[in-house]
Specification:
alpha/beta; 16 helices; 8-stranded parallel beta barrel; 2 domains; homodimer; TIM Barrel; 431 residues; 16 strands
Chain lengths: 431, 431
């Protein structure tokens, strides 16, 4: 087997004539999804509180699950015996899983990173768990997603000593690396991670048992240093695979840094393969990435912020420039408007979805605020539904902007994302 | 105004020829509901975690809200300004509210019960709140349900000293009653409650501002003493109203006591008005009550137990005689069956509801167990949906049993409810 397989296919449908943006379709054995795509995150095999039917009604076509969480509980072998993760969670569309590496680094006490893999303690049982490229592939083969991610070495992108990040433990772990008690400088560690990521990708590709049903994506590393990114793209994309991702961003850098790295890196990646920017989810950052040629995104923002009573809205005026309104705010106590005017989600326009409603009334801000104040589950659920749809509406408009090269129009309709449109494109609005 | 109004109408459709059971329809200004009816409880203006559309898909036609909770937060005046509780919670079907009295007694530190009303401390703010028949009517008029309940005096039905109930505080409050520092015996307190309930009902009827749009139901009291029940029925039903309820049951007595009181009381209540048994929700007790002529029920059991991972199932074998299975049990970890075979709910038969599913798979016990173990909201939601539908399926079969007088068949299909079918009816099964 050549390790590429035919698990998915990707075709570009439209290209912007003024930037790297494109629209396309990824076809998998569980249906297709349009790109640029936003994938909601179903960490433990469920998008918190949201039924598969509601995910689909919101417009999402592909969802992400976290290998780390499913490995710890209920275990990938148990899910395999259930017929795989699609059947387990009752989602019949495309699913992507990450490798488990990022959570192993960021959530667990790491015992050791070495050339072979990572040893960490389960946050549930305290038992030691060993993740290697081979183990990650076996686990993802057992879970059975349509797209699986390579197991990579993802150190902090900024020097941990430069700021109070929560990643000191990664640094410490790095210092314990190699069994030779050698402490690396930040720069040395970045070089090691870059090279190791390539070596691990090679092992992933060889260990991957189901290339004809599951597509393995490689991950480009290299931190915020553009030369390292160039080098990593070259090494990673030299290994033939059905898709590639940009990793090691959204791990603490500024939006400007994200954008700088993505604008540099994405155009270097193969034209004919989907490009996935891992974990990036602020509308502005996604739009900037689309203009650089990125096709896929995931982020917990719509659901996490939904649970915390933060509803995304387009209007910067109304949100005080934040792009979100906080439903717990007392000013909403008697506000009979929907979360957002003109939104077509189940919360803002329930009759459109065949839900009972008096005279087409929305779920009002007043009601949703009450639900949060009263600690009623329906509050987090309604705002999560709204936010998930907000992201899909943005993606629909992004795809239309590509087709018409109407970037000014996109920036006007989505003021919170406007900063992501490169300045030179803002002049090119449709007349 | 005569206080009866035409807010609702009730017609009996079929009567059992062998017991007091009947089917019927209650028509309200927000649509009708078939009886015998089970009303799910939306305590604070939402049925915990369940969307109005899902409530309707589960077959419930009328829902209950708690006046006490809505009065404390967000306040009945705020809800009135929102256009009433239907619009507030986006439920366009019939709504019933209780009077607030029961929660004031059972959840709050009571400062005093006297002939005029009850003073209690808000569990939210600690402020003193005064509930009287007039206040309860004003609050329910502001909330705007289709059916509102009289404000009654509901003492513990069994002597608090006879058992370790949590109602000692009610007893203590009773002893502080009258401002004369007089301590009542349990018997004296019951007599007082009975007479006071009648006096308060009279005040309720006079204070009720909207008899043409909201139906006021009187409540029969009298504890477990059948003579007192007879007396209370006579006094309460002498006040003409569109419906009547049996109160003061399901407050700590045994199932046998509930059944004995209901079998005695229901037949004494007017034939042509709906009869509502408040708070009773075990299938067996509901079936016994139906056979005595009761038309309406409410209970938190399906949703509360759903949140606690207890799924109702008909099979007594499978549930070890409990009528429920505990999804947290390790034996379900690899159980690929639905919560209940042949159930048509969204959890057990998602494709029937147009939900995504692989080959029509249900949400399995294995998945639902995982969701509870992982503290994922979807677990409580799926089991709540199942339990709500379980109750409606029971009601559908109960209505069919009335039409065919097939009580043996009902008992066979619903073994957990079989004990509710009077012995003499068990011989009358359809051949």
């Amino acid at each position: 087997m050549n390790g590429v397989g035919e698990a998915i296919s990707f075709r570009v449908e439209q290209r912007s004539s003024v930037c790297g943006a494109r629209t396309g379709v990824v076809e998998t054995r569980h249906g297709s999804f349009a790109t640029p795509a936003f994938m909601p995150v179903g960490t433990k095999g469920s998008i918190k509180g949201i039924f598969p039917k509601q995910i689909r009604e919101g417009g999402a076509e592909c969802v992400l699950n976290n290998t780390y969480h499913l490995l710890l509980r209920p275990g990938s072998e148990l899910i395999q015996r259930r017929g795989g993760v699609h059947r387990f969670m009752n989602w019949d569309g495309p699913i992507l899983t990450d490798s488990g590496g990022y959570q192993a680094y960021s959530m667990a006490d790491i015992n050791a990173i070495d050339e072979d893999g990572v040893t960490f303690k389960s946050i549930l049982t305290g038992e030691k768990i060993r993740l290697t490229p081979e183990v990650s592939m076996r686990v993802q083969n057992q879970l059975g997603p349509d797209i699986m991610m390579a197991f990579d070495d993802c150190p902090p992108s900024v020097d941990p000593e430069a700021g109070p990040t929560n990643q000191t433990r990664i640094r410490l772990a790095a210092e314990r690396d190699t069994g030779k008690s050698k402490a690396y400088s930040h720069e040395e560690r970045l070089d090691l991670a870059l090279e190791r990521t390539t070596r691990w990708l090679d092992r992933c590709k060889r260990a991957h048992a189901n290339p004809d049903t599951q597509a393995l994506f490689g991950i480009v590393q290299g931190g915020t240093d553009l030369d390292r990114r160039t080098r990593s793209v070259r090494e990673v994309c030299d290994i033939e695979l059905p898709g590639y991702a940009i990793g090691g961003v959204a791990v603490g850098e500024s939006g400007d840094d994200i954008s700088r790295v993505v604008r540099h890196t994405a155009p270097l990646m193969p034209e004919d393969k989907p490009r996935y920017l891992m974990g990036v989810g602020y509308p502005r950052d996604m739009v900037a990435a689309v203009c650089a040629g990125v096709d896929m995104f995931d982020c917990v923002l719509p659901t996490r912020n939904g649970r915390n009573a933060n509803a995304f809205v387009r209007s910067m005026e109304e949100s005080g420039g934040r792009g979100q309104i906080r439903l717990r705010n007392a000013k909403f106590a008697e506000d009979d408007r929907p979360l957002e005017a003109d939104c077509d989600c189940q919360a803002c326009d329930p009759t459109r979805h065949g839900w009972p409603s008096l005279d087409g009334s929305p779920f009002t801000r007043a009601y949703i605020r009450h639900l949060f104040q009263a600690d009623e589950m329906l509050g987090p659920l309604l705002v999560s539904l709204h936010n998930l749809r907000f992201y899909q509406r943005l993606m629909i408009d992004v795809r239309a902007a590509v087709a018409n090269d109407d970037w000014l129009g996109l920036a006007r309709r989505w003021p919170g994302a406007a900063a992501g449109v490169p300045t030179e494109l803002m002049a090119l609005g449709a007349e």
